[in-house]
Amino acid sequence: MDKKIPLRKCVGCGEMKNKKEMIRIVRSPEGDFSVDATGKKNGRGAYLCNNEDCLEKAVKGHGLEKSFSTAISKEVYDALKTEFKNIEK
């Protein structure tokens, strides 16, 4: 029997992809947002495809805000964009 591959939905484009191909955004219990490169950080997670277009779509469509059921400030989005660029390289 084949091992089941965990799929996650991108909050930007809505595509279902393999969990390992995606980047996890985490809100910690304290309410801090960060990019989780390991996929093991504690907290509520939402997934994005590994490209900036999906991050832009998530910002425009409020995908992350819907996933976390909270408003997200521009500063948080700017920090996430910076962290995202560091991971892409």
Following the backbone from N to C, one meets helices and strands in this order, namely EEEEEHHH
**Strand line-up in the sheet with most strands:** 4-3-5
Tell me, briefly, the overall form.
Answer: globular
Number of domains: 1
Termini gap: 36 Å
Strand content: 15-25%
The CATH C-level name is Alpha Beta
Number of strands: 5
Q: What is the CA-atom radius of gyration, in angstroms?
A: 13 Å
Could you give the topology of this structure?
Elements: E1 7-9, E2 16-18, E3 22-27, E4 33-36, E5 44-49, H1 52-60, H2 63-68, H3 74-88
Antiparallel strand pairs: 1-2, 3-4, 3-5
Question: How would you describe what is shown here?
Answer:
The protein is α+β, with helices and mostly antiparallel strands and 89 residues long. It has one domain (7-88): Hypothetical Cytosolic Protein, Chain: A (2-Layer Sandwich), CATH 3.30.1230.10. It has helices spanning 52-60, 63-68, 74-88; strands spanning 7-9, 16-18, 22-27, 33-36, 44-49. The radius of gyration is 13 Å and the shape is globular. The mean pLDDT is 87.
